[in-house]
From TrEMBL:
Its main location: mitochondrion. Pfam families: Complex1_LYR. Coiled coil: none annotated. It is found in: Mitochondrion. GO terms for cellular component: mitochondrion. Keywords: Mitochondrion, Transit peptide. Belongs to the complex I LYR family. This is LYR motif-containing protein 2. Residues 15-70 form the Complex 1 LYR protein domain. It comes from the Eukaryota. The lineage of its organism: Eukaryota, Viridiplantae, Streptophyta, Embryophyta, Tracheophyta. Involved in efficient integration of the N-module into mitochondrial respiratory chain complex I.
Length: 82
């Protein structure tokens, strides 16, 4: 059973890293003057929860982060940054 939980943790970690890469890619679409600050915000949010080992909370944070990315994506679309 312990190995199964390790696999779940591995998969969850992969989801977090995928989200992080996706968020960083999204910052490339932001206006040049805002990119560094946006990247820093993404990093701070990820680092703030770096040591969280509550799988439910991690899933919630990923879901919340994806919603925030969706909002950013829509905002960038409206401002013509595609």
């Amino acid at each position: 059973m312990a190995q199964f939980m390790d696999l779940r943790a591995f998969i969850l970690r992969a989801r977090v890293l995928k989200f992080y890469r996706q968020a960083l890619r999204m910052t490339r679409r932001a206006p040049e003057h805002a990119r560094d600050e946006l990247r820093q915000t993404v990093r701070v949010e990820i680092e703030k929860n770096r040591h969280c080992d509550d799988k439910q909370k991690i899933k919630f944070l990923i879901s919340e982060g994806l919603q925030r990315l969706k909002g950013l994506d829509e905002m960038l679309d409206m401002t013509g940054n595609s």
